[in-house]
Amino acid sequence: MTTGEMAAELVSPPLPASLRETLPGRYYTDPTIFAAEQALIFETGWSCAVLAADIPAPGDFETVQVGRESVIVARGRDGAVRAHLNVCRHRGARICTEDKGTVRRSFQCPYHAWTYGLDGSLVSAPHLREMPDVDRSAFGLHRVHSREWLGYVWLCLADEPPSFEDTVVADVAARLGSPDAIVGYQVADLALGRRISYDVKANWKQIVENFMECYHCGTIHPELTEVLPEFANGLAAQYFVGHGAAFGDEVHGFTVDGSEGLARIPGVGADQDRRYYAITVRPQVFVNLVPDHVVFHRMFPLAADRTHVVCDWLYLPEVVASGADIDRSVELFHRVNQQDFDACERCQLSMDSRSYARGGVLVPSEHHIGEFHDWVRARVG
Ligand code: FES
Ligand code: FE
């Protein structure tokens, strides 16, 4: 068989108008495209970085990856959270190599001991007095825009960030059908009950696309479809915008076996009770809302084929403080996560195949994924 004949075998006929193409396979493997996404998506928009309650006291800090940058997020002595690039202004050494920690009042670069305050200012450097041309005020750490919402610290590396309200808040409102629908879940007042991190060997877009559709629910999520019977028909993703998915009649709570859940969040209205809402906040957050807890995913793309996902299960503080058994509640979405990430990794294996060089197909219940692809293409080109 000649090369030409082989190529001819892999060309598909044009799609009927009712179907849409996916992105071509190389969008999930090409380091050049990944670098463009880092630069033009993750380094220009807002990313959810840190649970504010994880850095409760002055001097507490975490380092996080935003696009290709390492960022120090620290609570100052005034109680405010600030973020700075984790790059020494002297010769560029990475200042903090720890994921998290506590400093008394400053960060000291381990190389030549330039020392920066929690507000990023350069407070001292060896022999500074003998170097009058080194203006301390000119060599503070570079500031990263930050703000808190839903109890998390969100960061933007852009010099002039896009409106947080028009992007992040609007995404949540569009998904819930109203800007106020999230309020009743009191997300910022909830406490961390459990955290599980996942090292997913798949491109970040696989994870977004998977989260956006429920065509797969009947195949890979037996526990979830038991609790949410409407999900078994695969139409959930767009059908339930604005009014959530109802729990099954025999289901008592959003748990792995449908047994009773935990204390209901008081702000959850009667119209939101016994319902499940799933929200994608582009580009790297997924939120699930149920009456007694919130499942909050943050996603950190590390390479074209590797993504770190941190999933928090948040409950009323009194539920967490009481030591109540949250295992059955956590287990449901932990299984969903494992099932989803296994599926993403299964697809990732084929992204370099000649069979997928032109991509695949979005069936009608997945058409909204095409909008996500348009969104990516509009940014990356
Ligand atoms: Fe940090 Fe020299 S590189 S003090
Ligand atoms: Fe799923």
Please give a handful of descriptors for the protein shown.
single chain, 381 residues, alpha+beta, Rieske Iron-sulfur Protein, Naphthalene 1,2-dioxygenase Alpha Subunit, Chain A, domain 1, 2 domains, 7-stranded antiparallel beta sheet, 6-stranded antiparallel beta sheet, 10 helices, 18 strands, 25% helix, globular, disordered N terminus, binds FE2/S2 (inorganic) cluster, binds fe (iii) ion
What's the pLDDT, averaged over the residues? 93
Tell me the quaternary state.
Answer: single chain
> How would you characterize the largest beta sheet?
7 strands, antiparallel
CATH superfamily heading of the largest domain? Naphthalene 1,2-dioxygenase Alpha Subunit, Chain A, domain 1
User: Given the structure, what is the number of helices?
Assistant: 10
The proportion of residues in beta strands is 25-35%
GO molecular function: dioxygenase activity
Pfam families: Rieske, Ring_hydroxyl_A
Keywords: 2Fe-2S, Dioxygenase, Iron, Iron-sulfur, Metal-binding, Oxidoreductase
InterPro entries: Rieske_2Fe-2S (IPR017941), Rieske_2Fe-2S_sf (IPR036922), Ring_hydroxy_dOase_asu_C_dom (IPR015879), Rng_hydr_dOase-A (IPR001663)
